[in-house]
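Batch manifest, entry 17 of 40.
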Amino acid sequence: AAEEDTASSGKTDVLMDVNLSLDFTEQYDSNVFRDADDDRKVDDWISILSPHAQLGLGYGIFRATLDLDYTQGWYQESEDDNYQDHWLGSDLRWRFNHRNELAFRSRFDAAHEDRGTELTEGGARVVPEPVEFDAQRHELWYQLGTRQSVGRLVLTGTYYEKQYSNFREFTRFRDYEENRVMSAFFWNVAGRTGVQFEVTARDINYLTDPTPVSGQPDTLDALATEFLTGVNWNVTGKSNASVLLGYRQRNFDDNDREDFSGPSWRIDTRWSPKEHMAFTLLTAREDRETNGLGSFIDVKTTRAGWEMDWNSRFSSVLTLLVDKEDYEGTEDGRVDTNRVARFDFEYHMRYWLDFGVSLVNERNNSDIDRFNYERNLFLLFMKISNE
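Output type: structure tokens
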């Protein structure tokens, strides 16, 4: 409300906010490389340090946020897997009036993929250290109307690029860029009920294509589109739901790759029977870029959660996640089912100091043996913050 008054009155007071935090995590991993063979499994302790700084500025109708994050991980035994990740993010926002808002967001990453994940999934030891990459994302966002308006229009244009920086003999074939446009219209039809229409198009371009071979699939370049429509509810102010159903397509530039079309959905619900308790459920179907096999990954996700504030100092979150990943376009077929159970317990000792413990069990079942694995994680963490 204060932000609205400042913008509408034309005041030019300069607002500044600085938030600093430091996270430290001690993590035990029972299967660092996600090996399928019990005889090859390696366990280890990992120490993770993550400082974070956020600067917020406001001047009239303009707001800006700058985020800087650094993460360093040290393995007790497998020192070759030590890593350093950096990311820089910005959010620039202009609120011309209560019905017109424009934002430009950017993010730059210099990060890594743990051995045994992404490009080295099922073959962690093909590289002696983690695969590293640079990524950038830029998004232009515009909103006409507000959440209280009868109608609201949101337009988004996004550019994303990911390029790997080591082991270029094979990682160069996974460098890609994506141009994405999205349009969404929200219509409040009655009280706390609204209808949503959403259209998304993504142009995916891989920066290095393999040598073309007649009759064999090569380039992964594609145009992906999705159409969604559905209903949003905010029943009590504490409980809400969004149900979107639709259709999606992926058309490849390479005639040797089979185009895909099929249903899509995104259902997100939150129910708070009491002020200190909430249950969440998310289910979605989407496509992701392949990490080596097939043309792309058709993913069905289901996630359920239970959030509980036991009192002013203790809170917990229980999360159950199931991902079914169908690697479309593989010769022999590959379907993975990944199940994760996670429990987080946090102690808010002071307004600036939190302690916590997390337990994680992850199981991946695949019809290709080398992708089967199970691992358990135990985490102790501490957060210091001035927020």
